[in-house]
Design brief:
81% helix, 0% strand, mainly alpha
Length: 150
């Protein structure tokens, strides 16, 4: 029970911090979006893939629910932090800038989260199908961002 409560608290904190960080990142890139609604939609799409996973956990995962949610919450948090590499790119002599640096920071975030998510699935001892389910959610989210937001 104590471990479960700890996992619940960690999950809530990780996802809350992720929402805040991602919101700050999106807001700081206002020049990329056509309007505020596009910014909100971008955040909703990003969060939607995580919400989809959490809902799936409650429906399909019988054991280790909160352990898994806590761990993917940490993955989400690290992915949100990785977005801020954008600001480090500004200090590097890269041949690209602006939108390209934005795409690079998102790409780095996705790569980090993909590696971490796979490790979480392995460490938690659940089916690799959870990883592939997240990859599908990620692919859908990227398509929606490209087609609808940008």
């Amino acid at each position: 029970m104590k471990a479960r409560n700890s996992n619940i608290i960690k999950a809530v904190l990780y996802f809350l911090l992720s929402v805040i960080l991602t919101g700050i990142f999106i807001a700081s890139k206002f020049w990329l979006y056509s309007n505020v609604n596009s910014m909100i939609l971008s955040g909703c799409i990003a969060g939607g893939k995580w919400l989809t996973q959490i809902i799936a956990v409650f429906i399909f995962l019988k054991e280790k629910k909160w352990e898994f949610i806590s761990r993917i919450g940490f993955v989400c948090f690290v992915g949100s932090l990785a977005l801020f590499v954008y600001y480090i790119f500004n200090f590097l002599p890269l041949p690209v800038g602006g939108f390209s640096q934005f795409v690079l920071s998102i790409g780095l975030s996705v790569l980090v989260m993909t590696k971490m998510y796979y490790e979480v699935v392995r460490t938690t001892g659940i089916s690799v199908r959870w990883f592939w389910g997240w990859i599908v959610c990620l692919a859908v989210a990227v398509m929606l961002q490209v087609k609808i937001v940008f």
